[in-house]
Design goal:
Blueprint: H1 2-13, E1 18-24, E2 30-36, H2 43-53, H3 55-64, H4 75-82, H5 90-96, E3 100-102, H6 119-123, E4 128-130, H7 143-155, H8 159-174
Parallel strand pairs: 3-4
Antiparallel strand pairs: 1-2
Helix pairs in contact: 2-3
Length: 180
């Protein structure tokens, strides 16, 4: 599967197949997350230009750190994101020990301020490929609610809850619940 997706990326948009991005993990340790590349080259410049021109997009970016209509994303990339297949390479992060299958989604440095006094809860857990936020609505949930879900996950962690999240994830992915 990873090979086939990599070939499609190479054929449709050239450039590298994988994308690495610096994230914050457990105890504040930084690591590079692996993903399939879903964006056009020079994506940050495209984003900056788009946000400069579009006030509604600026507002959406400020609140969610995501855009429903992101000009950086390729056609194949849009499909990979909606199906969460872009995150398949994170299995390498799990094997490397800086991620687990279930936990809060890893965040970037710019997002740490959004956690406020709840940031220590985020730092207490190993980030996961899936988590409570993913099965609770993903992009349909406000960032503030995401932070509360991360705190809830850490404070009420049980193996049974992780199993429930793992069992709920395929339906969330297949039905594309909260994905864009």
């Amino acid at each position: 599967m990873i090979g086939a997706i990599g070939l499609l990326i190479r054929l449709t948009s050239g450039g590298p197949v994988f994308f690495q991005h610096l994230r914050i993990g457990r105890h504040g340790e930084e690591f590079y997350i692996w993903k399939f590349r879903t964006m056009r080259p020079h994506g940050e410049r495209l984003l900056a230009d788009h946000l400069k021109r579009d006030a509604a997009a600026r507002e959406e970016w400020h609140h969610t750190h995501k855009l429903r209509d992101d000009p950086r994303i390729t056609r194949l990339g849009r499909f990979l994101r909606k199906t969460s297949l872009d995150e398949l390479p994170q299995i390498f992060n799990v094997f490397a020990g800086n991620m687990s299958f279930v936990g809060p989604r890893p965040i970037v440095q710019a997002e740490t301020g959004k956690y406020g006094e709840r940031f220590p809860y985020y730092l207490a857990a190993v980030p996961g490929i899936t988590g409570l936020w993913q099965v609770s609505g993903r992009c349909d949930v406000s960032y503030e609610a995401r932070v509360i879900l991360d705190e809830t996950y850490v404070c009420k962690w049980t193996m049974a809850r992780d199993l429930w999240i793992l069992l709920k994830t395929p339906r969330t992915v297949i039905c594309r619940l909260g994905a864009y």
